[in-house]
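WARN retry 2 of 3 for item q-0093 after timeout on previous attempt; input resubmitted unchanged.
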Amino acid sequence: MTAKTMQDLFIHSLSDIYSAEKQLTKALPKMARASTNPKLAEVFQSHLEETQGQVERIDKVVEACQLKLKRMKCVAMEGLIEEGQEMIDEIEKGPVLDAALIEAAQKVEHYEIASYGTLLAFARNLGMKEAIPLLQDTLAEEKSADQKLTALAEGEANQKATQKREAATA
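OK item q-0093 returned
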């Protein structure tokens, strides 16, 4: 990565998260299909719709700020998605896999929260007034998705996975 200015760094980071979001639009339907928990599948489906809107918001930032994104692949998201796919491949479908899917999804959300928080700080510093509300909206959605996943994990998913393990060892 060659970044000589804050604007270069902003463009690089925006290009990276754009790639991440595009990759996620392909991974979320797989995660929804792998889940046996209808609430979890609905969270994945709902977040897919949000993610598609987030890609559109990035397009609006690019247009409003007259930027040109770099063609690149977000290797961090690629790794997180690969890790989630390994869970799908290696864990029997059921409550334990549902708990693992929540874990994988929260890792993704935390990466996105960090990315959008940083982009928002950069946009403020660069005076990109048009970008700020768009990035704020996306950051809020990412935080909300993380909260939904936490509530689902703490409310039932982890408990069901624990009960399955206890039943298997009894």
